């Protein structure tokens, strides 16, 4: 049994398989071809933080594949009345086939997985957001990594440069794990005090990633520029200090002009126009943020199928 708790849980070959599978599953969805390999399977989703995209993409995706979904939050379950996460895992995993959790510390999802009889998927923790990077890479391949016959070439990621502008957070950590596995480079620029911690990110210091003081320098020559909110869920008490510290880490048209002319802009959403990104960038021609959001559903359908049924 496999879990998907962080990006490095899967190999490059598994990602190549998942991207192909997601493309096929997306095609079926777009052409109204019924595809229901998960009839009688149930996904439990546990949200200890808010969500729009993660909830809708997992829930709609599971129903489309013939399965069903149970939605729990901290407030409406015994988790909010201090039932241990280990006991919750033991109970829920006797009743459902798959669990997705969005929570705080990575250690919490690891404790759940250690006591679960069924696969567990990370729907975001303080440290990682692997489903989002799965969707982001799929989106990049759709736009920039197609072979002549239209299929996706995961090898096209090899050697590209991703510029990360902003917080050294769960998204930044996950980009670094993806870079190590799939062979691309990451340029990171964060304000002082908000750097990526390689020990937390679970990656070695190495030549596949480089730190820049000035976000303009990080964007120079990039194939993809990406950012995220200045204040992630769970860090709201730091919001005022972060607004001050991050003021120069807004992705602007001038910053995008440092990147390659064909560079794409990505943001996992939700976004704050005028904070981490200028409206002209997120609403501009290089932005693929709506494709990213939609692709959450297609890649997660492939992921759920793989965890429950293996390679097909
Ligand atoms: N990007 C993302 O995970 O969005 P939600 O917080 O809306 O799920
Ligand atoms: N870094 C953000 C991502 C939201 C999808 C957060 O953790 O709140």
From TrEMBL:
Its EC number is 2.1.3.3. Keywords: Cytoplasm, Transferase. It comes from the Bacteria. It is an enzyme of class 2 (transferase). InterPro entries: Asp/Orn_carbamoyltranf_P-bd (IPR006132), Asp/Orn_carbamoylTrfase (IPR006130), Asp/Orn_carbamoylTrfase_sf (IPR036901), Asp_carbamoyltransf_Asp/Orn-bd (IPR006131), Orn/put_carbamltrans (IPR002292), OTCase_ArgI (IPR024904). GO terms for molecular function: amino acid binding; ornithine carbamoyltransferase activity. The keyword Nucleotide-binding does not apply. Residues 159-307 form the Aspartate/ornithine carbamoyltransferase Asp/Orn-binding domain. Carbamoyl phosphate binds at residues 51-54, 78, 102, 129-132, 268-269, 296. PROSITE patterns: CARBAMOYLTRANSFERASE. It catalyses: carbamoyl phosphate + L-ornithine = L-citrulline + phosphate + H(+). It is found in: Cytoplasm. L-ornithine binds at residues 170, 228, 232-233. GO terms for cellular component: cytoplasm. GO terms for biological process: citrulline biosynthetic process; L-arginine biosynthetic process via ornithine. The keyword Transferase applies. Pathway: Amino-acid biosynthesis; L-arginine biosynthesis; L-arginine from L-ornithine and carbamoyl phosphate: step 1/3. Residues 2-141 form the Aspartate/ornithine carbamoyltransferase carbamoyl-P binding domain. Reversibly catalyzes the transfer of the carbamoyl group from carbamoyl phosphate (CP) to the N(epsilon) atom of ornithine (ORN) to produce L-citrulline. Belongs to the aspartate/ornithine carbamoyltransferase superfamily. OTCase family. This is Ornithine carbamoyltransferase. It comes from Tepidimonas charontis.
């Amino acid at each position: 049994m496999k879990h998907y708790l962080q990006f490095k849980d899967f190999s490059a070959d598994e990602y190549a398989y998942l991207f192909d599978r997601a493309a096929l599953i997306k095609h079926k969805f777009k052409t109204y071809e019924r595809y229901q390999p998960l009839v009688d399977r149930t996904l439990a989703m546990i949200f200890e933080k808010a969500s729009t995209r993660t909830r809708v993409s997992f829930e709609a995706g599971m129903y489309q594949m013939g399965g069903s979904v149970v939605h729990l939050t901290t407030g409406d379950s015994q988790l909010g009345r201090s039932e241990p996460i280990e006991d919750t895992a033991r109970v829920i995993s006797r009743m459902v086939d798959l669990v997705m959790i969005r929570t705080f510390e990575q250690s919490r999802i690891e404790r759940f997985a250690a006591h679960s009889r069924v696969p567990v998927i990370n729907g975001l923790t303080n440290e990682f957001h692997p489903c989002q990077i799965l969707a982001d890479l799929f989106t990049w391949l759709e736009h920039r990594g197609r072979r002549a016959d239209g299929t996706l070439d995961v090898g096209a990621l090899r050697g590209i440069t991703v510029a990360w502008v902003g917080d050294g957070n769960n998204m930044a950590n996950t980009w670094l794990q993806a870079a190590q596995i799939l062979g691309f480079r990451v340029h990171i620029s964060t304000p002082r005090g908000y750097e990526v911690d390689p020990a937390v990110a679970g990656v070695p210091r190495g030549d596949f990633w480089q730190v820049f003081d000035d976000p303009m320098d990080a964007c120079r020559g990039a194939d993809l520029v990406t950012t995220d909110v200045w204040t992630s869920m769970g860090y709201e008490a730091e919001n005022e200090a972060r607004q001050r510290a991050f003021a120069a880490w807004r992705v602007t048209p001038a910053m995008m002009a440092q990147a390659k002319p064909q560079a794409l802009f990505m943001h996992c959403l939700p976004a704050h126009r005028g904070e981490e990104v200028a409206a002209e960038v997120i609403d501009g021609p290089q932005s693929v943020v709506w494709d990213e959001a939609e692709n959450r559903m297609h890649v997660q359908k492939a992921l759920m199928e793989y965890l429950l049924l293996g390679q097909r």
